[in-house]
From TrEMBL:
Top-level lineage group: Bacteria
Entry protein name: DUF3077 domain-containing protein
Annotated InterPro entries: DUF3077
Amino acid sequence: MSTDDTTPHTTVGKTKFYQGEGHTDPLFCIEPGIPCQHAREQASELMGCVCDLTITGIMEDKPQLIWASYYLSALAKALMDDAELGMKH
């Protein structure tokens, strides 16, 4: 079976994020079929927000911003991981 190199690679939809140890239900998962390039661009945007939220949370002693950055970074990682899986197919 050959693949057409002109067809854009897409996410496979296998990456899930679980909150904490022992949790069996994913908090969120990546949908299949997202163009990998778009997923990677969105992950980059999210990581920019993570950086801003982290710095502001530390400088202004706002732990809720640190938690927000934690969840956004997990989403960005899930996007990147699933895009990576999609690039292999």
